[in-house]
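To the team - calcium ion complex, inputs and output below.
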Amino acid sequence: MLRKTVPRSGPSWQAPWLPVSSGIFCLCLTFFLGHMGLLQGHPQCLDYGPPFQPHMHLEFCSDYEAFGCCDQSKDHRIAARYWDIMDCFDLKGHEVCGGYIKDILCQECSPYAAHLYDAENPQTPLRNLPGLCSDYCSAFHSNCHSAISLLTNDRRLQGSQGKDGAHFCHLLNLPDKDYCFPNVLRNDHLNHNLGVMAKDQQGCLQLCLTEVANGLRNPVSMVHAGDGTHRFFVAEQVGVVWVYLPDGSRLEQPFLDLKSIVLTTPWIGDERGFLGLAFHPKFRCNQKFYIYYSCLGKKKVEKIRISEMKVSQADPNKADPKSERVILEIDEPASNHNGGQLLFGLDGYMYIFTGDGGQGGDPFGKFGNAQNKSSLLGKVLRIDVNGAGSDSKRYRVPQDNPFVSEPGAHPAVYAFGVRNMWRCAVDRGDPITHQGRGRIFCGDVGQNKFEEIDLIVKGGNYGWRAKEGFECYDKKLCHNASLNDILPIYAYGHAVGKSVTGGFVYRGCESPNLNGLYIFGDFMSGRLMALQEDKKNKKWKKQDICLGSTDTCAFPGLISTYSKFIISFAEDEAGELYFLATSYPSAYAPHGSIYKFVDPSRRAPPGKCKYKPVPVKTRSKRIQFRPIAKTVLNLLKEQAEKAANAASASSPDRVLSQKGSSKKPASRTPSSRKMLRRPGTKKKARMWSPGPQGKRKKGRKTHRGRVAASAQRRRAGRSLP
Ligand SMILES: [Ca+2]
Ligand SMILES: [Ca+2]
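Output:
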């Protein structure tokens, strides 16, 4: 009849948040956090993940159906346990004690479950009953003390069964009265905004990150192949593309290495290099992908080249180096503003985002390149890569391109008036309503004053160089009645940032609060921002995104710091959102990392976001991921250890007890490797990998001379892109 009460362990509780089933692990975390007094104000489940909205109706613990820590199967288990216990009661017992027993058992479903079962003091046994407020506890004890031995196998609690309630209730007391049951339900502060994204006092959205990759040289793009393998392909500006597997490891051999053709330099802010990568929408069938890079043509003319390539028949994780088919080349009149985005729209056509050519103020020709529809610079181009044109072109122009019949206009132009769109993305649409599906969002980098986010429409004139953001840049062109331009959905001034990096609309599964938020950033200031559409007036409202609260991000594997220079955003095959950043933005510097966004306020219900990657044969060695960023929990642990050491140093009397309390859990903490697993990882840990540095050594050597020389030549960094 007596069952083991296991509120904090057991494989059935195994959430992705805690890949290792470990009561000790929990104990240690609780100790460190409890020690720091940081557990408060932080909804958290017993598996240390954020609470969630159950996928299905909870029949038993229905108080926690809207938001909490139980899914339907957990609810069923609790109900079964309840009925087992109630078997021991007669009718009157049912009447008097049924409610108490249900309440107590259901606390595992509370969004504050981690606090209710708190084990702050490692000297005492783990709580296996929730913290009860004294009035409630006394009432329970006086009416139903015979139930105690049925609810717990804790000897001390069982021992207090027959005694007066004071001892029992003392054992179940929580230091913070707001958090005991049932006060925790009544506290407005704890219950309003439950499950809603946390904000700081300035209204800044509180998100956290996991580190996914590091050691990359200016990672400019991360894309997936849409083939069900859930691999992601990360391109470095120098021209090397790496394959990452769903277990977090990286293949030692690159997917593609075009270092010898790609034109770039180590100058900070050099905008030339390997800039874009996109897989064919039918990649699964045709193995084709597309690349966008800077190179030198005849007579050393700088140009951008867009090519098609195929994957090697011998190895699905390698490009066939002989397969390159050049689709388009455009001469670049200056080294900056080279665009670089490639993507496929829902229409199956390839969209190419070029820059205005460079220098400042779009000086080329009568009125610049961007407003000149005969030039391919400063444009969004749309082409059909699935056929050759009639005029020896390596692509076909879709018949419904907007300017096909306009004399003098290049037929590939889809939209114009673009300065240097840096990162564009297609919205997958709301997972249920599909609202927003197919929209293309871009960040267009500004000249002197404004950075903007645009929604790309067919035939649209995005204003440059007549306008920068909402304001006139070239007054004469700006006041031309035929300008008919499309304004940005959002623009910000240079006090906020000086080079926008376009992002993605979040449509993933793991962080449901983020659905519909367009998340982007600024390369120069390192700011992360989000836009949300007001569906009534179609206006976009900006919210800042903040990281860095150790309180909010105190979950296993989460970090709250990142490298400042935000180069690009990315979406994995499942729709989760990432960004690519570096601490030193030189194309040769191996200081780039990839981070994944995590909402600490609410996760998806367990089991909802599972997917099974299509297995892919690998020939190359797998290099395990080794994180370099410190997790929030590790930082807290260090602080706690410091505080404990300081305390033992200052108080000789306490040395013994401190030793007992601080060292014991520390020595029992699982290796930091285990702790550092990111929440999204289903099974295998992401472990140490030298990152691409290992391969890089050789390349760096050969480049060293060039690097030093060019660095000297051009110390002055330019603001990029
Ligand atoms: Ca250029
Ligand atoms: Ca514009």
